[in-house]
Amino acid sequence: MKTGVYVLIIRFEMRVTKCAFVSAELNLSASGLHILAAINGPCLDRCPAMTMQILNIVLYSHDDRKRVLSLRSGQVNIITGASKTGKSALVDIVDYCFGARECRVPEGPIRRSVSWFGLRFKLKSGEAFIARRCPDPTALSSEDCFVDIGDPVDIPERRHLRQTTNTKGLGALLTNWGGISDNLHEPADGQTRRALSATIRHALALCFQPQDAIIRRDQLFHGTANNFFAQALKDTLPYLLGAVDDDYVRKREELKRLTKQLRQCERRLKEFASLRGSGVTKASTLLAEARDIGLSASLASTWQDAVAALREVAEIPGTSIDIPVTDDAEYERLSDERNQLRRKQRRLRGEITAARAFEQDESGFST
């Protein structure tokens, strides 16, 4: 006869930036033996990275009672219990407190009885307590988050819990506590997806290993059934594993800044080239404007002459400029020049017509 014994072993260690908060739930036999392992890792003291260890998982009821599950830091913690008693929900509770978009704690006694979920951490320096309100039955999540930091920090009573931040602020705090510094992954040229920064949410994919993820043959990490999240994990994995360090990120940002400066210089050179053009081009236009307001009388026909005339205009003190009312003198001059050219054009066309007529008459006499 099968015993029906269930064991829950959870490994709760957060050693992000070269990572390791692992939570594993294993189904080891057909008899229903479950193992959810949480180890507050003994290797933490040997790792210089910033670390987090969960000391307590706290559930608050609606009538101000609380249930505290204590874990030993730096050791393997084994939680045992019969089936359907909430062992697997611990992973979902931790995930929800870490800023998940949706509360995946199954609907049932836990969701109906709990008003807040809480976690107490041991940080590299001091302790922290975070809590998040259990969503209403008709909601998927709640933005009400509570944060308290101290050395040490006590587990607060239910009546002291209130919203002090939202999930975005909570995620930023957890990312900082996990030792994830500013970083940015920029997709290769030609890719349409946006640049992405690694956060605590990406690190959790390397930490949680619930039962349904372990038994899948085509999925290695938690949450990668979602194609968008799987791609995000690919983008952030080099940083989280330490293949891309903070110094690389700084150098990449410096390269980005220098590249931007290079493009600005190239744009200025292009503008300078367009200003010079094949002749006078824009310089001629500027010089014409200067003539129109009486700053210059030069009629430059070459690039060098136009630049020399513009330099003379630039050296004129602004206080000594007396702009006369010219009644659009430059426009009138250009109009007169255009009229002269049109008269010359008509005269030349008449001469061409007369020449062609003379040629035809000559051909007629010769035949």
What does this protein structure show overall?
- The chain has 367 residues and is an alpha+beta fold.
- It folds into two domains: 7-244, no CATH class; 327-367.
- It is 38% helix and 16% strand.
- The chain has ten helices and ten strands.
- β4 and β5 form a beta hairpin.
- It is elongated, with a radius of gyration of 39 Å.
- Residues 1-48 have low confidence and may be disordered.
Tell how many strands the DSSP assignment holds. 10
- SS class: alpha+beta
Query: What series of H and E elements makes up the topology?
Result: EEEEEEHHEEEHHEHHHHHH
Strand content: 15-25%
Helix content, binned percent: 25-40%
Count the helices. How many?
Answer: 10
Indicate the low-confidence ranges by residue numbers: 1-48
Order of strands, main sheet, comes to 1-6-3-2-10
C-alpha termini separation: 130 Å
Tally of domains = 2
Mean pLDDT equals 76
Rg for CA atoms: 39 Å
What kind of sheet is the major sheet? 5 strands, mixed
Can you tell me the overall shape? Answer: elongated
